[in-house]
From TrEMBL, chain A:
Pfam families per record: Cytochrom_C_asm (PF01578)
GO MF annotations, alphabetized: heme binding; heme transmembrane transporter activity
Family: Belongs to the CcmC/CycZ/HelC family.
Protein name per the record: Heme exporter protein C
UniProt function note: Required for the export of heme to the periplasm for the biogenesis of c-type cytochromes.
Biological processes, Gene Ontology terms: cytochrome complex assembly
Alphabetical UniProt keywords: Cell inner membrane, Cell membrane, Cytochrome c-type biogenesis, Membrane, Transmembrane, Transmembrane helix, Transport
TrEMBL record, chain B:
UniProt GO MF annotations: heme binding; metal ion binding
Function in brief: Heme chaperone required for the biogenesis of c-type cytochromes. Transiently binds heme delivered by CcmC and transfers the heme to apo-cytochromes in a process facilitated by CcmF and CcmH.
Gene Ontology BP, a term: protein-heme linkage
UniProt-listed HAMAP family: CcmE (MF_01959)
Organism from which the protein derives: Marinobacter antarcticus
Any Gene Ontology CC annotation: plasma membrane
Superkingdom field: Bacteria
Cytoplasmic domain ranges by topology: 1-8
UniProt keyword annotations, A-Z: Cell inner membrane, Cell membrane, Cytochrome c-type biogenesis, Heme, Iron, Membrane, Metal-binding, Signal-anchor, Transmembrane, Transmembrane helix
Topological category with respect to the lipid bilayer: Single-pass type II membrane protein
Protein name: Cytochrome c-type biogenesis protein CcmE
Compartment(s) of residence: Cell inner membrane; Cell membrane
A Pfam match: CcmE
């Protein structure tokens, strides 16, 4: 366990292994996401109350779940940066922050599109929607702070502290619908209970969720590889990789 | 673990714990402002201010919806199954508005205890099901003599 953890400290090792894994993430993710989306959007039964407009759930729930998970991953990497000073953790945060920003935006956007026909409004300042908007700003803040500081090491530490500060928002997003009165309904997927929808609905939803997570894994790998190449451009293994294509 | 790392880890954990406590206390102090709406029990208990724009939320009571034949005026009662508040609204209701459905209304409470709404939003819960299943559940609940027609689902709002 510790040995694996220490190996992660070597960007070269990660670069080599991620080039092998990344294509599998992409194929697996695309397969699951396309199956889940087509099944959910075209074949799953309609909802008794909302008709077809509920189908946006097959995009909204995966993006909303991933938006929060990515932030938790970033905060965990932030702890690693602060405690172990591992370069790769910082590379991860830098590589995935823009992905998280886009995914959060998608979650908010699909939520608004869903809210108009069902609730009757695009936006309402309830606890769930507001805390999700704060998450979007946190991603923006992480990206901006990282760009604002030139020195790589100081930037890494500042960003790590910011991700840790922001992670307090995650339980607020998660439990906002239970702690306060909100317009947003409670969670569709709960870890402890069976989903409150029939299998023809939750299976495609689960497939899309898993698919999106795998695609995120692929994106994270590819973006981290780019970042590693930029940072290590003076090292010998990168020069060798560029000329021979081998790590 | 290396002692320096151990020390850094403790600092990080203290930082997180301190932040969580600060945020928890703040949100606890602001809980009434974070709540999106007053429920009928709070309004009946006089917790909601009169003639101030507020939101009221709850379930539309069965058999309480009265539509004006001349205009878009609608009157209904919003309930949380222990208290209910009369609501009046002039305008177009969202598609999901129905008896037994959760709503959140924006408006003012007048001094007769009536809620005059200028916006009505529909609330739905996390129970999604195909129409056939909903029909079957409704039939089953009717044959059991349950009073909540259309109450295929547990009453959450």
């Amino acid at each position: 366990m510790w040995q694996f953890f220490h190996k992660l400290g070597s960007p070269k090792w990660f670069f080599g292994i991620s080039t092998r894994f990344a294509p599998w993430f992409l194929t697996g993710g695309m397969l699951l996401l396309v199956t889940g989306a087509v099944w959910g959007l075209a074949f799953a039964p309609t909802d008794y109350l909302q008709g077809d407009s509920y189908r946006i759930i097959f995009i909204h729930v995966p993006t909303a779940m991933l938006a929060q998970s990515v932030y938790i991953m970033m905060a965990s990497a932030g702890v690693v940066t602060l405690v172990w000073r591992m370069k790769l953790a910082d590379v991860f945060v830098k590589a995935v922050a823009p992905v998280g920003l886009v995914i959060t935006f998608l979650a908010l956007f699909t939520g608004a599109v869903w809210g108009k026909p069902t609730w009757g409004t695009w936006w309402i300042w309830d606890a769930r929607l507001t805390s999700m908007l704060i998450l979007l700003f946190l991603y923006g803040g992480v990206i901006a702070l990282d760009r604002a500081i030139n020195d790589e090491k100081s930037a890494a530490r500042a960003v790590a502290v910011l991700t840790l500060v922001g992670v307090v928002n995650i339980p607020i997003i998660k439990y906002s619908v239970e702690w306060w009165n909100t317009l947003h309904q409670p969670a569709t997927f709960k870890l402890t209970e069976k989903p409150s929808m029939p299998a023809e609905m939750w299976v495609p939803l689960l497939l899309s969720v898993l698919g999106l997570y795998l695609i995120f894994g692929w994106l994270a790998c590819v973006r981290m590889q780019t970042e590693i190449l930029c940072r290590e451009q003076r090292s010998r293994w990168v020069k060798e990789f560029v000329t021979t294509g081998r790590v | 673990m290396h002692p320096i790392r151990k020390k850094r880890l403790t600092i990080v954990l203290f930082l997180l714990a301190g932040l969580s406590i600060a945020v928890a206390l703040t949100t606890y102090a602001l809980r009434q402002n974070i709540n999106l709406f007053y429920d009928p029990s709070q309004i009946s208990a006089g917790e909601a201010p009169v003639d101030v724009r507020i939101r009221a939320g709850g379930m539309v009571e069965q058999g309480s919806v009265v539509r004006d034949t001349e205009s878009l005026k609608v009157e209904f009662r919003v309930t949380d199954f222990s208290h209910s508040v009369p609501v009046e609204y002039v305008g177009i209701l969202p598609d999901l508005f129905a008896e037994g459905q959760g709503i959140v209304a924006m408006g003012r409470l007048n001094n007769q205890g009536r809620f005059v709404a200028d916006q009505v939003l529909a609330k739905h819960d996390e129970n999604y099901m195909p129409p056939e299943v909903a029909d079957a559940l409704e039939k089953a609940s009717k044959s059991n003599g349950s009073a909540t027609a259309g109450g295929a689902k547990p009453a959450t709002y």
